[in-house]
Each structure stands twice: as structure tokens, then as C-alpha cells.
Amino acid sequence: MQDNMIEHLEEILGYQFKNKELLRTALTHKTYAFEARTPLEYNERLEFLGDSILNFIIAEQLYCSNRYFSEGELTRRRAICVNNNVLADVAVRLGIGPFLLLGRGEQKQEGAKNRTNLANMLEAIIGALYLDADLETVRAFILEKIYTKEYQF
């Protein structure tokens, strides 16, 4: 991926990565990595980390802003905020799908528009952001880009 594309994505995200390789990994689908001539890390591990961080930040936000909700209600509302459909909608709104690096077969199937791929990539970006910056930077990103007014209770 060319540096100018990385810079454009960083503008969209509102964050400039110190370690650009973290961002490249977050954008790398396993089909792309498997077709590469040399071994490449792909985004699933970052997705795992990003999913955990996203759930934590949203849970914390719900806990702090909804004092009288039960555990079950907090869990239900968190699930509303962090499901794949919401994350895919955020990815579409941000316009980050075209940055996803896909293998040839996945490209033919328009994998950059696949909602699961988009949600997974966004979670991987969250993981990369956490590793490159800190929890406060990730919190600000999540609260600005994902936990928008329509999901605040």
C-alpha cells in the first residue's frame, strides 16, 4: 500500500500512526497475506485485541452514564452498540472499505463491501490504534466515531 493512501486513511481516522506497519497489518485480510510472496501478518490478531478494547470502552461508558441500569440491561445495550452491523455502518460512513487489502478471489467477490470484513477491519484498526498510541486515544476515537448520539442511552 502506497504511503499517500496510508496518509489519506490517517486523515479519515483522525490519527497519524507512528508505526505505519501496524496500520498496514490492520488493513491486511488473510486472503491477501496468504497470496503474498513473503509471509505477512494479517489483521485477525489485531481484530481480537480491538474487539476486546471496543467492548471495554463501550461497557465503561454505559456503566458511567447509566447509573441505574442492571447488568442485563448494560449487556443488552452494549450489544446494540458493538455488533457487526453497527461497525460495518461506521466503516461505510468513514469510507475505509477501499483500503482493505484483499486476495484476488476476495476482490472478485467484492470483499471490500462485505459487512463482516468491514467490521473486522474496523476492530483491527482499533487494536492497531491502541498499540500505536494509548487507551485514551482509542477511547476518544471510539466515542467520536462509533459511540455516536444514536447509541447513547
Can you describe what's shown?
The protein starts with a helix and ends in an 8-residue tail after the last helix. It has a single domain (18-151), classed as Ribonuclease iii, N-terminal Endonuclease Domain, Chain A (Orthogonal Bundle), CATH 1.10.1520. The protein is globular and about 55 Å long. Helix 2 (20-27) packs antiparallel against helix 8 and helix 4 (44-65) packs across helix 8 (115-132). The protein has 9 helices and no strands. By secondary structure, it is mainly α. Helices cover 67% and strands 0% of the residues. The longest helix has 22 residues, at 44-65. It has helices at 3-13, 20-27, 30-35, 44-65, 71-81, 84-94, 104-108, 115-132, 135-145.
The CATH class is Mainly Alpha
| Spatial shape | globular
What is the name of the CATH architecture? Orthogonal Bundle
* Uncertain residue ranges: none
List SSEs in N-to-C order.
Answer: HHHHHHHHH
Helix content: 55-70%
Number of strands: 0
For the terminal residues, how far apart are their CA atoms?
Answer: 39 Å
Radius of gyration: 16 Å
Largest sheet: none
Output the number of helix runs. 9
CATH superfamily, called what? Ribonuclease III domain
Content of β-strand? under 5%
Structural class label: mainly alpha
Mean pLDDT across residues:
93
* Count of domains: 1
List the helices and strands and how they pair.
Blueprint: H1 3-13, H2 20-27, H3 30-35, H4 44-65, H5 71-81, H6 84-94, H7 104-108, H8 115-132, H9 135-145
Helix pairs in contact: 2-8, 4-5, 4-8, 4-9, 6-8
